[in-house]
Amino acid sequence: MCGIVGYIGKRQAASVILSGLKSLEYRGYDSSGIATYHQGHIEIHRRAGKLSALTDVLHAKLPEGHLGIGHTRWATHGRPTDQNAHPHESDGVVMVHNGIIENYLQLKEALIKKGHVFKSETDTEVLCHLVSEELKIRGDLVAAVRAALLQAHGAYAVVVMAKQDPSQIVAARLTSPLVIGIGQGEQIIASDIPAILPYTRQIVTLDEGELAVLSTDSVKISTIEGTPKPLRVRHIDWSPAMAERGGYKHFMLKEIFEQPQAIADTLRGRIDLQNQRVVLEQELQWQQMPEQIIVLAMGTSYNAGLYLRYEIEHLAKIPCQIELASEFRYRCPVIRPHTCVIAISQSGETADTIAGVKEAKALGAHVLAICNVMDSSLTRLADATLYTRAGIEIGVASTKAYMTQLAAAKLLALFLAQKKEKLSTDQIKTTLDAMMHLPVLVQSVLHREEEIMAMAKSVVHTQSMLFLGRGREVGTAYEGALKLKELSYIHAEGYAAGEMKHGPIALIDEQFFVMMVAPHDANYEKIVSNAQEVKARGGHLLSIVSQGDTQMHDLSDKSFEIPKVDPSLYPFLTVIPLQLLSYHVACLRGHDVDQPRNLAKSVTVE
Fold first, then answer.
1. Which residues lie across from 43 on neighbouring strands?
2. What pLDDT does 100 receive?
3. 29: which residues sit within 8 A by CB, 6+ positions away?
């Protein structure tokens, strides 16, 4: 969850760290802090609230020093207060931490008996005190960090410095991500790449169970136990501008409008129009076609997974089920021979999804990841990865990542159907032609943003809203409801429309709003019936409909038309007005769109 930045080199560390934290604030914004070393002293500043609260304090004069660590927090243990903010300090040892130390209470009790006094409610301070205790015993910071981590249970990314040895930074990870930027006479470590981009494109991704020692001239990697590991440096071609707003008011709006390009990037090189086929052989490296598929995902990725399940069963005729990753490993899942588990995650660091994948692999499943971030934890666990190529997504509420997950899902389902010879060449060609036109169609919907702004004004004061869809649009309904509740804090629920009469219909009255996702597909007549039931009870009906649809248009208080397309591709178009609706409702209600309360971009703890 939290954002971590550490620096050692020739620059003013505070400037580098604060800039990096700003680029990572989407990971957490309950509190923030910075610690720097200068001439034998460590200076620490911490503030509850957003990063601006910290920068306001430091505006007059940044701390001196060329060594430092910083943190922006999403609270797990302890409330968002100055005392609970990171970095934490104990006898000259300073630490920032992302994750959860599950046995921190037992460790804390043992440390209290040794005379340690704690000032916060956090598990991180306990781990910091444990390192300082081990440093007294061992006299070496690296050995102290190793010894402390071997006693800690849970998930973590930790970065540690100490005034006793200002020549190095020690970092380690277990589940939570850390990335190192290799510079000339300087090193920077962070929980995500945007913090590193202004300084270097040479990147080392710390792997599971690895520890790094950073000095001005070197980076050394080993296991937490102490076994040396090779330094795996790779060059990335992201530019800092990719992480800037580019003139848009919010990152989320920028990313909504980047969706045509994101779709094109996901499809590029994977569609062979001349031979009417999907080209994924090198990426997927199938040894044997699966006889069963299980999709694991959470949140927005789960909603994309609903579309994937529908398309796999519809096109490839392979039994497919979808599971919330957080529930999968706790119910003794049954993995049959020749089962493929498809794990979907934008960041590749979602803790529940990673845990589910580990369980699936232990039970013998082949694992395919659908992921946006190269070299993430999920992609290293998986047997193969289908990258979505969405690029950097800063807005906490996912948009272009969801869109590219849909594109990857459609490609994968077509590829499986092609391998199993379930579709004719003409069927594949027709679908591929339609997919290649998606960026233009998506752009045409985005050009009509003002129509959605008008719809947003009609629902801005509602307290609750229902989103309904059928077939492929069930995931769209879920996603529309999720976006509205994430950003506007309006209570919203997504349902398969057939479920409406099994409970939700009791909510409908003259003040209640219902959004129908109703393109003209095989389920159209059924959802028209649902719409009539809403109107018969006096509910306010909004709808997303196909171009030229007069029946739903006449039933609705407000409707938005999308272009006609192959019915299997409607979810690419129907979700866009719902993304824009949630964005504009949130803006009208005065909320922070890029940093909605209580949420963070990557859920890296359970």
1. 36
2. 82
3. 49, 50, 51, 72, 73, 74, 595
Q: CA 208, CA 211: separation in Å to the nearest integer? A: 9
Class in CATH terms, 245-436: alpha beta
What's domain 447-606's superfamily in CATH? Glucose-6-phosphate isomerase like protein; domain 1 (3.40.50.10490)
What is the pLDDT at residue 245?
A: 67
Residues of 164-179 as b/e, b for ≥16 C-beta within 10 angstroms? ebbebbbbbbbbbbbb
What pLDDT is attached to residue 504?
82
Whether the Cβ atoms of residue 169 and residue 187 lie closer than 8 Å to each other = yes
pLDDT of residue 361: 94
Predicted local distance difference test score (pLDDT) of residue 592: 87
Q: What pLDDT score does 550 carry?
A: 92
Phi, psi of 483 (to 5 degrees): -65, -40
Q: What is the pLDDT of residue 373?
A: 85
Closest of 176, 177, 125, 128 to residue 155, by C-alpha: 176
| Sequence ranges of the chain with CATH classification 3.40.50.10490 | 245-436, 447-606
Distance separating alpha carbons of residues 101 and 152, to the nearest angstrom: 6
What is the H or E stretch that residue 370 is in? strand 366-371
Class of domain 3-242: alpha beta
pTM of the model: 0.77
The CATH 3.60.20.10 portion of the chain extends over 3-242
Rounded CA separation 232/234 (Å): 7
Low-confidence ranges of the chain (pLDDT < 50): none
Place of tokens 């990725």: 301
Q: What positions carry a catalytic annotation?
A: 2, 601
Q: In degrees to the nearest 10, what's the CA dihedral of 495, 501, 502, 503?
A: 80
Question: 366-396 burial, b if ≥16 CB within 10 A, otherwise e?
Answer: bbbbbbbbebbbbbebbbbbbbbbbbbbbbb
Q: HSE, CB side, 13 Å, CA atoms: give it for residue 459.
A: 35
